[in-house]
Each structure stands twice: as C-alpha cells, then as structure tokens.
C-alpha cells in the first residue's frame, strides 16, 4: 500500500481495511449463493417496514417499484416534476447483456472479462459476475415492460457493438435507449402509485441524511415550490441520484444533475470511493464559445459506422471534404488495429486529447476531431444509416447547423460518467448501515473506466434485481422497530442544521451568483483533474479550489428567500457541495500514484504512452472519510483490496 511519503503534499490519515462482505469461493456462483443466504421478510411483515428511495431514474424507479410491489411502504422522492424526466433518459446508444444470441462467440465469461479489463482491474470481479448473470433478465424484463427494442427481420431483438468489445451484445432502440427504458420504468413506478402501494413526492430535493444510533433512519427534503423542509423517517434509505459529472460545469449531464444527496450522505459518514475516476466521453460535442453552458452527448454507437480522424498536417485549415484520403490520420485504427474506432472510452478520449494538444485539432477553436460517415454512407446508403442513427444526426444538425450526412461530425472528450461514488459493499450498503446506494451514485462494477452500454445495465440490475434482495436482508434484523418520530431529537437537530445552512448561504450577501463559482471550478478541474493529470497540476488545483471556496463564502449572492421557489438557493447549495467534493477528487487523484483507466497520471505511463498500473501497491479501492470542512479539511483513506480469480491481472491492450 502506498501511504504518505515525504514528497507528498497531502496530509492523509491511514484508515482501516474494508471488506465487501461478498461470498467466498467461485465468483461465478457468488450471487446465487448470496441470495440463498439472505434473510427474508414474510409477506405479512413487509407493511411494517418503510423505505425511502431518492431518485427516480432507472435505478431508483426500479428499486421503488419492486419494493412497493413486494409490499413494503415506499416513498419515492424526485426533484423533477415527473419521474420520467430523470437523467437516465439521456443515455442513447444501448444496454449490454450476455445473452449470446449472435453467433459471434459471446458468453457470460467473455462479458466478465471485457468489463473487468475495461475497468482496468480496479473494480470488484464478483460484482461483475452479478452484472453479467442478471443482464439477460434485465433485457427480458424491460422488454416485457414495453421498451421497444430494435428487432431483426425475423422478429428477434437486434444488437450492435460498443467500445471495448469485439462482439455484438448491445440491445438498443435507435439512439433513444435510455429514454425508452426510463419511460418503461416510470410507467412501472406509476402503476404502484396508482394502486396506492407507493407515495411519490415530486419537486422535492434531499438536503440531508438522518443518522441515529449509527444507522440511516431517514432524510430531510426541501419542497422546491414552497421552500419548506420536511423530515421523512424510514427503516432504510436508498440513494439512486446519479453521478457528479456536472462538477466540471461543461458536461454531458442535464444542468440539474448534481452531487448533493451523495455528498450530504458523505458528510454524515458514508465513505466516498475513488472520486477521481471520471469518464470523459469521446463523442461529446466540442465547446464552441466561452458562454456555452454545457456539452452535448453523441452516442458511442456512432463509432460502429463512423471513422475518427484528424488531418495529418498540424494546423490544417481546409474543409474536411477537401482533405484527401492520404492526408487523413485515422489515429485509432492506426494505433489500435484490433479494436479500431471501438476502443474503450478512456483510450479514445486520451488519444483524441493527444492529437488535439499536438496541434491537429479541428473546428473554430481547434478543440475537436472528426467523426466521419462518408464510407458507411457509401457502403450502406443513407436509408440504412438513418434507420440506425437518424435521431442522433438530427440532434447534431440542430445543435451545430451542420448536416452530418454531408460533412463529418466534430467531437471532443467531455466530462460524462463517474465511476467513483459512495463506497458500498456487495449488498450495496454503504459504510452507514441502512443507507443503500444504486446506480451511478455508487462505485460498483466499473472500476477505473466504464464500458459503453454498461451504465443502463448496472442501473437496472441494481434497482430491479439487487436492492429488492439486499434491503430485506438488512430489514429482517429490525422487525418490531418503529421509524423515528418527527419530534425525535436527532430528527429535529438534522432539520435545524438544514435550515441553518440555507440561512448561512442567504446571509453571505456578496456580489457573485453561484454560477460564476461553478464555472470557475469547472475550468480548474478541466486543467488540473481532466483527461490527463500530473502532480503539479493537481497540487495547483487543490490550492485554487481552496481559494475559490473561500471566495464563495465571502462573495456569494443569492436573491430572494428560502420560503419560496428559489432556484438560485438550490444552485448555491449544490455548488457548495461541488467546492468540497472537488478537493477530495483532486486529493484522490494525487494520492493514487499510478495510471489506470480514466485516471491517467502523466508521470506513470509506458514508453508507448499507455497507462501504467501499479498492481503491487494500488490494486485496491480507496474509500475516503473527510471532516472539518468549516476549516482545513481532513482526509482519511480506508482501503479495500481487490482480488481477481477468473480474470487474472494483465496489461490492458487493445492493439
């Protein structure tokens, strides 16, 4: 283990060794053996337990609907005006499953190998087996719920390939897969609401976690229409609130996506695992002006038929169609011939950034590369390409004014998915008993890099097929206990803490809106903790974040009051959380002295520029406990060693 050294600028306490509490023995049978050992709650006793689920994306909707259908008292909370607006709708390209329907030698074992290798051996192998095992059930389940998967001529479900694999295991609905799955999941949630089995709170945001006797026993939510704070007590809490990619300001996430629920849980004691593991999507649209508020995602599925290239001559200003074939550098095909344009996202993003930084970038700001469909259009025709990607092509033209049927798309790496998140054990329970995490809010499955089309899968597996088993296993020990009363001392203390926080932010009385601090933070992170990082850049970023946070507390201005609709107040709370989380991200990146997946430290690379892991010292999960955010923050790193039995450690090579 690599602990604090004399050359490190960090003051990190050495914590404990954590256990995932996963079954011993063959990882391929671990999930079934775990389910067989879980304690049950009888049908007559389920109504005696209350559960609150925060978030109604694929993970949250699945968990809430499944638990309500089993008979538990469930409250689902979303800050949207309807569950179907959750950010899961933004996923475009598809959802993976090891169903082996194509005759291309796919299998459950190959799925596990691809996913473990794709995560650069920094995720739990046993959990990947669960992901693979449940994947076939997920497709059948969502198909039964009405998701309109694409079909082959004979009527069977169609598939296509995605980055990091050489088989066809991605099920899809054109470029709308997340939207269609979310509609199906929200409909299932609505059915439980209609039958009176589930209480749904819309336009409510979780602002704190209630912890008593070392257990999570509820949440504090804010009514976004009235400003009223309300406690919701329960026997268990499930957080399914997505990732924190919006911390970069310019990201592919919806602007309302945030990290506050997870960070508030962390402030109450939940460990944060590997927060520096951030995926930069290789096919985001480039930022064209300083005032652009976000980047836009173009599905990775486009890399099935699109070819990525830059001009061979640096600084070439010719129009792309005027550059002849022999003057184009198809750099992914050149460097990674076995996978070509379907290399994993971290590899593709790093390669694009290298070409851009070397002066081969294209577009008005020279910050992008080309994604060209010329050859595919000639081979298959416009009708076929339109059937596969038509809505994506329309979206691109709406955003840029350029017709991708006639000129190549321009793409660039953009902050996207977070592999880091709240640490949770094999049961998806965090370091706070009774607090569970599902979907991107947790750090399961993906290691240091997520393979495309595994995000929708992991959210569905967590929500529909893991939480309904693991939460009852926890609840079985608490039969006969009542939820906390709202007058309980701890409930009232947590409620008052939330009121005081909003009053403190409102009373700063400075001159700058929260957006200005968020934008400045994003610029710091893209420079210091972006696609590539190094010691000097991360050290500078930490110092700049601390200075920015001081300025925030001195010069923040929020108009209005807390007792009404106040989106600036909501935003300020989220930015305050970002300004703390960002420091932990950079500390984690500086502490981890290796390159792995999306965490690429410039000091640690092979002669050919590929990531250089340190398995002797860093084959582990770093789980952070922090404190004293009112002063100089303190950091304690707990560790969970990683083991690989079915997929032995090896150098990740896509050539």
Automatic annotation (TrEMBL):
Which Gene Ontology MF annotations are present? electron transfer activity; flavin adenine dinucleotide binding; steroid dehydrogenase activity, acting on the CH-CH group of donors; succinate dehydrogenase activity
Q: Which UniProt keywords apply?
A: Flavoprotein, Membrane, Oxidoreductase, Transmembrane, Transmembrane helix
Active-site residues, Swiss-Prot/TrEMBL: 345 (proton acceptor)
Q: Which GO terms describe its biological process?
A: anaerobic respiration
Among the entry's GO cellular component annotations, what is one? Answer: plasma membrane
Q: Which InterPro entries match?
A: FAD-dep_OxRdtase_2_FAD-bd (IPR003953), FAD/NAD-bd_sf (IPR036188), Fum_R/Succ_DH_flav-like_C_sf (IPR037099), Fum_Rdtase/Succ_DH_flav-like_C (IPR015939), SdhA/FrdA/AprA (IPR030664), Succ_DH/Fum_Rdt_flav_su (IPR011280), Succ_DH/fumarate_Rdtase_cat_sf (IPR027477)
List where the protein spans the membrane: 49-68
The UniProt record lists the Fumarate reductase/succinate dehydrogenase flavoprotein-like C-terminal domain at: 518-654
Q: Where does the record place the region Disordered?
A: 1-29
User: Which superkingdom does the taxonomy of this entry point to?
Assistant: Bacteria
Gene3D superfamilies, alphabetized: FAD/NAD(P)-binding domain, Fumarate reductase/succinate dehydrogenase flavoprotein-like, C-terminal domain, Succinate dehydrogenase/fumarate reductase flavoprotein, catalytic domain
Residue ranges constituting the FAD-dependent oxidoreductase 2 FAD-binding domain according to the UniProt record: 51-456
Q: Which NCBIfam families match?
A: PRK07573.1, sdhA_Bsu
- What is this protein's name? Succinate dehydrogenase subunit A
């Amino acid at each position: 283990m690599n602990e604090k050294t004399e050359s490190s600028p960090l003051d990190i306490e050495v914590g404990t060794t954590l256990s995932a509490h996963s079954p011993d023995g063959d990882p391929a049978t671990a999930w079934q053996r775990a389910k067989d050992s879980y304690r049950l709650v009888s049908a007559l006793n389920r109504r005696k337990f209350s559960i609150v689920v925060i978030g109604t994306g694929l993970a949250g909707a699945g968990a809430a609907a499944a638990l309500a259908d089993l008979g538990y008292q469930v409250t689902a909370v979303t800050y949207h005006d309807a569950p179907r607006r959750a950010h899961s709708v933004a996923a475009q390209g598809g959802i993976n499953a090891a169903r082996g329907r194509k005759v291309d030698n796919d299998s459950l074992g190959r799925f596990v190998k691809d996913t473990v290798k794709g995560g650069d051996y920094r995720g739990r192998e046993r959990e990947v087996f669960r992901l693979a095992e449940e994947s076939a059930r997920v497709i059948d389940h969502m198909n039964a719920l009405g998701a309109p998967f694409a079909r082959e001529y004979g009527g069977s479900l169609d598939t296509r390939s995605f980055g990091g694999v050489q088989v066809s295991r991605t099920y899809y609905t054109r470029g709308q897969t997340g939207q269609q799955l979310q509609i199906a999941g929200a409909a299932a949630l609505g059915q439980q609401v209609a039958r009176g089995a589930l209480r749904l709170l819309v336009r409510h945001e979780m602002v704190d976690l209630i912890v008593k006797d070392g257990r999570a026993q509820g949440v504090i939510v804010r009514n976004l229409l009235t400003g009223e704070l309300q406690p919701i007590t329960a026997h268990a809490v499930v957080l399914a609130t997505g990732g924190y990619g919006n911390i970069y300001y310019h990201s592919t996430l919806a602007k309302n996506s945030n990290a506050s629920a997870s960070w508030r849980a962390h402030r109450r004691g939940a460990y944060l695992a590997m927060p520096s593991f951030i995926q930069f999507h290789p096919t985001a649209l480039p930022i064209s002006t300083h005032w652009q508020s976000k980047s836009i995602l173009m599905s990775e599925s486009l890399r099935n038929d699109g070819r990525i290239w830059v001009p061979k001559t640096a600084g070439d200003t010719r129009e792309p169609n005027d550059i002849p074939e022999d003057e184009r550098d198809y750099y992914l095909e050149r460097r990674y011939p076995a996978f070509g344009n379907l290399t994993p996202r971290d590899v593709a993003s790093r390669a694009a950034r290298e070409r851009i930084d070397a002066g081969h970038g294209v577009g008005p700001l020279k910050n992008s590369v080309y994604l060209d469909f010329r050859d595919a259009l000639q081979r298959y025709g416009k009708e076929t390409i339109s059937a596969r990607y038509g809505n994506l092509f329309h979206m691109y033209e709406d955003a840029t004014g350029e017709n991708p049927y006639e000129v190549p798309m321009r793409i660039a790496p953009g902050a996207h998915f977070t592999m880091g998140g709240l640490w949770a054990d094999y049961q998806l329970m965090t370091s706070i008993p009774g607090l569970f995490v599902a979907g991107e809010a947790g750090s399961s499955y993906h290691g240091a890099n997520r393979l495309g089309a595994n995000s929708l899968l992991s959210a569905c597996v967590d929500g529909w097929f893991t939480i309904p088993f693991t939460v009852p296993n926890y609840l079985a020990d608490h039969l006969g206990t009542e939820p906390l009363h709202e007058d309980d001392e701890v409930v009232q203390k947590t409620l008052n803490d939330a009121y005081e926080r909003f009053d403190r932010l409102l009373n700063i009385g400075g001159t700058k809106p929260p957006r200005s601090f968020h934008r400045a933070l994003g610029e710091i992170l893209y420079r210091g903790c972006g696609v590539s990082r190094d010691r000097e850049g991360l050290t500078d970023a930490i110092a700049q974040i601390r200075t920015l946070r001081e300025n925030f507390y001195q010069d923040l201005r929020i108009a209005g009051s807390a007792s009404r609709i106040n989106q600036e107040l909501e935003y300020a709370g989220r930015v305050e959380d970002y300004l703390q989380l960002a420091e932990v991200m950079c500390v984690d990146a500086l502490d981890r002295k290796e390159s792995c997946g999306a965490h690429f430290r410039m000091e640690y690379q092979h002669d050919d520029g590929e990531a250089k892991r340190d398995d002797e010292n860093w084959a582990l999960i770093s789980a952070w406990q922090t404190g004293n955010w009112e002063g100089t923050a303190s950091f304690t790193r707990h560790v969970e060693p990683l083991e690989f039995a079915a997929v032995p450690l090896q150098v990740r090579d896509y050539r």
